[in-house]
Amino acid sequence: MKVIVAGMPKTGTKSIMLALQKLGMNTYDYMESYEYYKKDWIRIFQEGGTVEDFRRMYQGVDAVADSPVWYYWEELLEAFPETKIVLSTRESEDVWMKSFKNQVEKFNNPIMSLLGYLSPSYMKFLNYSKILGVSLFRTVGNSTKMNELSLRMIYRRHINYIMQKAPKDKLLVYSAKEGWEPLCNFLDIDVPTEPFPHKNVRGNIFEDMMANHPLMIRMQHEMYISLAILTGLLAFGSYKTLTVGPGQILTYWCDFGKTILNKVMNILQ
Predict the structure, then answer these.
(1) How far is CA 43 from the centre of its chain?
(2) Residue 128 lies in a domain
(3) In this predicted structure, what is the pLDDT of residue 178?
(4) Residues 25 and 106: beta-carbon distance below 8 Å
(5) SS3 category, 172
(6) pLDDT tier for residue 22 given thresholds of 50, 70 and 90
(7) In a domain, 253, yes or no
(8) In terms of residue numbers, what domain contains 215?
């Protein structure tokens, strides 16, 4: 591993990771950590992990960023001691808080609500995200409601802790607005001639992921299939009600509901 981007979400991590990709690095962001290592991470959230766990999980990856790796930067550094640390920051705590709240609000929309009911893949993703929220952001139980005071304290303490604990010769405190030069000089890489990339400006990552990310596209396909199945079942249920009577159809739907619930529980395990 070459780079740990240890800044919290909404500190320019998406832009930095895209820049590192353009510099030829194999990068793992939030979605890659989820897709490839969700079982490992859930175990780490709940039971803890070892240096060997982190080394196994990210062997061969050049750069990592976003949740949950920003929280475990120290353990990753122990697993990959030659790695350099990029602490991405915003202009101020207030700017970061506003951006973070805007990002969360972008994902609180009718499409995501439908996915929560109709996509088995999203059910797994939502379960993982809630466990992560409790572990990293101190949300309460399964709640996704933000506690602004707590979030500000986490942001402040995270930056101060890295500034105190990270090896000074391996640390770059950096804003994506600074462009290529500080980043490339820190990594001892030639500065590209193309403009520095900027991604997730004003929280538009939701639209980008829904249109382009394979996992999010699969979730949407599952939602459409579930809607089609539910429409067919409702039509069939209406027909059965007319032909066999409401007493028998109630028993049928109760048995059917139990079957579906058992299948959903098996998916989430």
Answers:
(1) 16
(2) yes
(3) 96
(4) no
(5) strand
(6) very high
(7) no
(8) 3-220
Q: What is the DSSP letter of 200?
A: S
139 contacts: CB under 8 Å, gap ≥ 6:
130, 133, 145, 146, 147
- String of DSSP letters for 37-72: HHHHHHHHHHH---HHHHHHHHTT--EE-STTTTTT
**b vs e for 136-169, b when ≥16 Cβ sit within 10 Å of the residue's Cβ?**
bbebeeeeeebeeeebeebbeebbeebeeebeee
Strands of 54-212 (E only): list them: 63-64, 84-88, 171-174
- Give CA 217 to chain center in angstroms: 15
Task: Give the predicted TM-score (pTM) of the model.
Answer: 0.79
pLDDT top residue among 106 and 242: 106
Which residues is 88 bridged to in the sheet? 174
What tokens were used for 247? 């007493």
Q: Is 138 left (phi over 0), alpha (psi -120 to 50) or beta?
A: left
Check: CB of residue 16 under 8 Å from CB of residue 70. Answer: no
Residue 170 lies in a domain: yes
Residue 218: pLDDT over 90: no
- Three-state DSSP state, 199: coil
Total domains in the chain come to: 1
DSSP state of 12: S
Question: Side-chain half-sphere of 206: how many Cα atoms within 13 Å?
Answer: 13
Q: Does residue 225 register a pLDDT over 50?
A: yes
What would the pLDDT profile of 161-214 be if each residue is shown by its tens digit? 999 999 999 999 999 999 999 999 999 999 999 999 987 656 566 667 767 778
